[in-house]
Amino acid sequence: MDAWLEALGQPQGSPGGGAASGVMLGLGASLLRMVAGYTPDDSRAAECAARVAALRGEALQAVEADGVVSARFGEALALSNDDEDREPRVRDAAVEAAESTAALGRIGLAFIPEARLLAEVGNRHLDMDLAVGLEALEAGLSGVSLTLRANLQIARTHEAPSSRLADLIALVGELAGARRIVGEIIAELSSHLD
């Protein structure tokens, strides 16, 4: 982890904000998995644990893939403005980066039903662990949304066809809705402290 964090802190763009957002999704998934594991008397929690573990694996694979895409995007952006290949390369790389970030976003969305389930059936002694996991999930969703929007902005600036962007733009709205849901669950869990 230290090596990855060191790489994240370097001015190289790979890993970058999208990958960091995916890691936050993975952190959230691990805490959700822990809460599910501490809920042995409900078969729904055991099934949830298996799904969350699988999603965490998908998120980490998507993080790795995003790092490769980010590197290509950075290379395209680093081309000289005088290079005739710059415009199409930046456009294509921006769309590819948006698609890579969207893959992380779709994984993040898949955590929402699991969060709802654990808020309902999870071991009440672990409500705060669940809330912390959901805070990480919310941060991951927020980071994915911001990264996706930035990639889309660059893609549009470089005249990417709207047909390639429509689904990605729609995902931004879905991510905002998911963040609201997660925030509501966190608020409910947190209210048990007062």
From TrEMBL:
Pfam families referenced in this protein's UniProt entry, alphabetically? FTCD_C
Which intervals hold domain Cyclodeaminase/cyclohydrolase? Answer: 2-154
| GO MF | catalytic activity
Question: What InterPro entries is this protein classified in?
Answer: Cyclodeamin/CycHdrlase, Formintransfe-cycloase-like_sf
- What Gene3D superfamilies does the entry give? Formiminotetrahydrofolate cyclodeaminase monomer, up-and-down helical bundle (1.20.120.680)
Name of the protein in question: Formiminotetrahydrofolate cyclodeaminase
